[in-house]
Fold these 3 entries.
Entry 1:
Amino acid sequence: MKYERMPIEIESPEEFGYDKIQYNLSESSVRDRTLSEVGIQLQDLVLLYGEHKGHRGLVEVIAKASGMAPSEVLVTFGAAEALFIIATTLLEKGDELVVVRPNYATNIFTPRAIQADIRYLDLTFEEQWLVDVDKLAALLTPRTKYVSITVPHNPTGQMLSEANLRRIVALVEKAGCRLLVDETYREMTFGGPLPCAASLSDRAISVSSLSKTYGIPGIRAGWLLCQDKALLETFLGAKEQIGICGSVVDEEIAFQALRQQDTWLPEITGRIQAAFRITRDWMAGEELMEWVEPKGGVVCFPRIKLDVPVDVDKFYRVLTEDFGTYLGPGHWFEQSRRHFRLGFGWPTLPELKGGLQGISAALRAAMT
């Protein structure tokens, strides 16, 4: 393994320092919750080794919400561990995979650390950041171990249709490879969620967590879903070698939180829609910016118009130093820095408005 730190983590707000940020528009989740908001009761929790596949009640809640059987669920230390387990199980040095880019950095950096051969399906602004299934099919070879996609897409917020998701499932079935679908934002789809990909085929693997939709990244609770019982057993073996089991504290909090999803999701959806309307109105009035309007999630990936004469490095510097606003610059996703990931779900509505005003002011301050 050849590990390398990811820019998105080196420059994350927690590493930069939350105390230096007034308007944090870099987050890719809803607002973080406190323990008191979740209403957790832990006083009688026994601090033993947990069940290796995960807290039994949590497994059952995840399975029910995903249309899967409890036996097809593996609880992990956040979605990040799930993605690591999948990559290190399915890939060896020199193996091939196909990755949609831009993508969540772990989906690219872990295969690179393994020294796998990555074939990229590069999405573009001009093509509305949409996955062209025919172009994806052309990248598959007999050496392809798996295809990696995110739906809704991070960082653009774009969607696949159910028909295209099923086409991609059919592609991997025909090719005899696997499909990894990062479904972290699945419940945030503006038009209603797609089926869980793992429920459609034993060649598909789904990954999600409590970090983004539910605003609980601090407990590190995620999961992967897979119908292939032999492969799931191998994934469990990887988890046991990494850490034996998850934290019983984290998994108990996750269980108590996820049981409240029917109550929380309407409230979460309402907050997201209010924030999205503010962002959409700002984009409509900001003549220096353009975007492909997101269809789900809590992030978008606008860009400074190509004909706008702006010193991009000065823009980010002024934005942070003079206007207290923090964004996810395009290089986090191996894209031009004229793009940035704008997270509209995490800040309060007044913070969001303040940050958007800061972007507009910093753009004009950095014009050449």
Entry 2:
Amino acid sequence: MADEKSRVAWLVNALPSIVSGGVHAVQGCDYSIRLDARDSDDCAVVSIDGVGDLVVGTDYIRGPKFLLYEKGFLGNADIGRFLVTANISDIAAMGAAPIGILVVVRYPSEMGLEQFRDVMAGIDDGCRAYNARLLGGDTGSAERLILSGTAIGLTTAGKALSRSTAEPGDVVIVTGLIGGAGAAIQAGRVELVRDLTSAVWESLLDCWRRPVAQPRLGRWLSDAGFRVTCQDVSDGLRATAREIGELNSLAVVLQGEALPLHPGVEPVARLMNVDPVGLGLSASTDFVLVVTCAAHHADAILEGVSACGYEGRAVGHLEPGSGVWLQHEDGLRVPAPGVEWRNQVGEVTEDMLRGLQEET
């Protein structure tokens, strides 16, 4: 069965109503559209003459991402805030400063007014955190709570970040902790919560209750002028690395000891009897950024990450070849372990974490 990425690639190239490229005009205002499923992080770029590049992206929350909500670990305000962060993160990876967001809130008939207000309060809180206006949207009934958003941001003309400009020898940088959101999902799915300390469990839940997108950093990268690729880690680091590698026809080599795993990953992995690195690389909604850059620019970019208030770390490099690899301190190189959203069915098991062989 075709996965999400291949379906998106098909519709961008196959549907006549999706227009990319060329110059168009509306009431004397010239604009062009870049809609490339390969090169943009789930976003379209509309270049408006004399204004800049408008970046538009959309996302919605359902299914597995609601697991912790459905089990009562997250409240209505939490998922409202999460919705905003998920959408802002997409435009952050394009280097856009947030302008605003439109939301769709569909709710079941049994949801009371106070619960609805809590959802909207979370959305409002998220908007204020990123200096984004709530521009409108739609509300109405549905069989369950469904949230969707569309974020709009702005970059300097021609400065929207790309995912396809990487070169062999580039350094791979991650701008924060990874794996916490995925570890929380697994702990909730296999009922490990009672075996974790309250401090660990609360820190994992905060990955969902207080997620942080990085638009300030994306904007800095856009203006800094370095040749970089950029993508947010909203599908887990393994999936993100694979996509960047495939887009640039390069292999991604990750250094196992350098990976910035969330402190809660190891306790969950130990209880599940799985590899912490495999769990940390797996499907996880981490709204940090992956940046690749020339090796001689890595220190400057890491300084910029720090100046924006985040903790960056060089975690690997790109080289000729294909696939995502994990290199150990002793030099042994193996296919990177982990499970992507598109492959995951049920809980993460040891067999699933040993590494998918499709790239090898």
Entry 3:
Amino acid sequence: MKITSLQNFIDQMLKTVENRRQLSSKYLVNKEVDFDALQQLIAVYHGIEQIPNQNGWKLLTLSEGESSRVNVDYETEELKKDIWFFEKGENQFIKHLSELHSAYWQEVNDGIEFLDSIKFRNFITDRDGTINNYCGRYSTSVQSAYNAIFVSRFTTLIKNKPIILTSAPLQNSGIIDISVNPQDLFIYAGSKGREFRAADGAIISYPIEKEKQEMLDTLNARLSELTKQKEYKDFKRIGSGLQFKFGQTTMARQDIQQSIESERSESFLQEVESLVQKIDPDGRYFRIEDTGLDIEIILTIDRNGSAKDFDKGDGILFINEQQNLGIEKGPNLICGDTASDIAMVKASVQQSKETYTIFVTKDEELKRQVRQACSNTFFVSEPDILLSILNKKTLS
């Protein structure tokens, strides 16, 4: 298998979705390995390994024939983990994880003690950085099979269908397209919960006024034109790229590898802010949230007589209303890894004091904010450790 272009690389990664789904589904039933699907993963891994290297970056051609340096650490490492899991067995894989993360066993055992014997009604979690390791590009951040096995097992302990809620789109290069969990186990929510796919397959979305949708369409058209300009093309190729979501647009200005010079990234942020200001001079329609990596441009909603941006807390309340989750009854387990996920915690706490949260972070300021929002908190350092807690809790 020869991978020469970025598009070819993306295509090969997306082909692993079905292979990984087959592997995880079969293993969850009877711990058997689908060796044909595993061989496909191995072939993709070797294909990536053969891409020319330059100082730790892979060299791939773009559609215009230009050459680009691409970081493929996530894709390579997650493929290696899957291969290790199915070739060497689950026990050896867990030992492997404990060798990768120095605090592994301490955090896993403390996490099991934190969850104790609580029978959770709802489990609501962010994806990237929480139950999934971070990737440099959303389009290739395909969920690993071992990941699907660990998190899917935990669903057997939850009364309602668990929810994976993300800022990314729901479909069309969204969370549905890169998830390999067995069908019908989760409710997938994209665009901070403005749209979600229920366990029965129905797509449900938060209503958007016609005037606001027209403003968002105008913004998206202008951003598309902006990123066609030579000096701004790179921003579509890094991190989140340019994502048109339901009620929101995400424009990358940096990625986790810091591949864009900081001055250039800041200049692009100012350019996008200026564009939004021209379209919406009074700030009636849009709110901008800069994460340092992404510029989130969010349609406002009317709440208590004033306009506010739609956050993940609003998403939880919307899904609760539509799916009768009974969040107000609890107990609820909320998981996240960034400040934007605190809105989920606050929404749950406002509904039920029986709210528990696990955050994946080493940031002391973020820990302080989470503790302030919820007294029942626990912190881990890596997504793999959170996954291991959920898995061990199920098997214990």
